[in-house]
Amino acid sequence: MTLARTWSVGLAGVQGAMVEVEVDMAAGLPGVVLVGLPDAVVRQSVDRVRAAVANAGGEFPKRRLTIGLSPASMPKQGSGFDLALAAGVLAAAGTVPAAAVDRLVLLGELGLDGSVRAIRGVLPAVLAAARAGHRHVVVPAANAAEAALVERIEVLPVGTLSDLVEHLSGRRRLTRHVRGPLPEPAPPPDLGDVVGQAAGRRALEVAAAGGHHLFMTGPPGAGKTMLAERLPGLLPPLGDEAALEVTAIHSIAGTLPAGAPLVTLPTFEAPHHSATMAALIGGGSGQIRPGALCRAHRGVLFLDEAPEFPRAVLDTLRQPLERGSVTIQRAAGSATFPCRALLVLAANPCSCASAAGDTACICSPLERRRYQSRLSGPLLDRIDLRVTLPPVTRAAWLDGLDDPEPTAVVAERVATARRAAAARLAGTGLSTNSQVPGRMLRERFAVPRASLGLVERALERGALSVRGFDRVLRVAWTLSDLAGRTVPGSDEVAEALGMRLQRVAA
Asked: Are 103 and 136 in contact (CB under 8 A)?
């Protein structure tokens, strides 16, 4: 009886968990038994390994093999275990030394010809291996740049199963991948392209400075989509920890851009209004994958034509927006993904969507109310900023004399405001005004009572909920930071209330 052991990594959400792969070869009728809660893809890996070994010039052992994936209670999903299974089988058969694979972590999918193919989730898998104390990891050559983002571990890229056998046998060693300079990301669209729309530009700046959700309404051509696409450029670049976190999500989702192993700028997700609940939040029948909301973590989620989304789908955003994370439950397990995204909704005032605005609208008041009611009150109550964009006039489009401010100028003001907020919130674990709990707003960061007259009257007459009251205060603090003030005054509170109470339709 021969026993060999090697390692791979399973994924649950954005977290990796070490999986010990044990292969026991014993006398008896030839066959393979795979245990440890493998899904259908993992069970099929036995056939891929058998064909890959044969086509790579080796021989699959004609003995009774028992392959155990430990911990046995954790579901194993995906094709990333192929390479570890192949190495374990070859070590048990004596083709390669068992000691060579004992502490080695192997990730990759095998083609039937013995080629090693790229897989999803390499970054969180290598991070888990490094935390567990492993020092060497073998990954597909196409994933080497992504894996090399992790420090304190040696990344060995491999192209074929034959190359791995040569390495493990000591005949030709794999070359360690050396992390090179990261490519410069493409610059985002510039805010200077947007003509007019002073109210929209102001709302965009406030949203970026405080991390506030934004709802824009206006006729077609008013610039709603253009403004939303330029919001990521106003957000500060991602720090090292945040960049790894966002990159891990996109690695699992399979949306990591080719040639750009590290996401360093805030992302922009704009799903179509036909998106399902699983596409927006996350899910899947097999391995749970992050949806558009999770892929927009630390970036922008833009829902254009928001009333056209199914109402039930939109309402699933409510809890994740509050918590900053989403947990997806399945019978085989659960996965938690961070989703602290900045939500931007855009809508036409009514279903006829006349480019001339209300003057050419043919909808009845009942039709307009029915169209607007597709967005539920609880969802809108979580939107801090609401702005109505008028049609762009001929004077603004053709005769405008003043050049609009570019992204770089506005982004500098946003960065200054964020630094002021971070200094004020130091020691709280918070970074933006939109994250401050209501109790902390009223006790630790109280706005002078003399400045709250308008917002208190709005609360008394029912125009604001208690949640809305707190959100007005958060926006007032952001306006104060943009103005360079140490505490909001009545002007900031009034502007914040105006942004909150602005009607969806003109």
From this structure: yes
CATH number at residue 370: 3.40.50.300
Q: Which residue's structure tokens are 């992790």? A: 150
pLDDT digits (tens, 9 = 90+) for 338-352: 999 999 999 988 877
Provide mean pLDDT across the span 405-434.
95
DSSP type of residue 160: B
HSE value, Cβ hemisphere, 13 Å, CA-based, for 408:
1
Query: 3-state class of 145 per DSSP?
Result: helix
Is residue 25 included in any domain, yes or no? yes
Among candidates 319, 297, 379, 79, which has minimal Cα distance to 328?
A: 319
Compute the distance between CA of residue 452 and CA of residue 16 in angstroms, rounded to an integer. Answer: 48
Given a cut of 70, is residue 65 above it in pLDDT? Answer: yes
- CA distance linking residue 211 with residue 200, whole number of Å: 16
User: Which one-letter DSSP state was computed for residue 393?
Assistant: P
Task: Classify residue 175: in a domain, yes or no.
Answer: no
Q: How many domains does the chain have?
A: 2
Q: Is residue 273 part of a domain?
A: yes
Predicted structure pTM score: 0.91
Rg (CA), the chain: 27
CA atoms within 13 A on the CB side of 145: 14
Give 249-287 pLDDT, tens digit per residue. 999 999 988 777 899 999 999 999 999 999 999 987 777
Query: What does the DSSP assignment read for 11-35?
Result: EETTEEEEEEEEEEEESSSSEEEEE
Q: Which two tokens stand for residue 392?
A: 């762009």
Cβ atoms of 296 and 282 within 8 Å: the answer is no
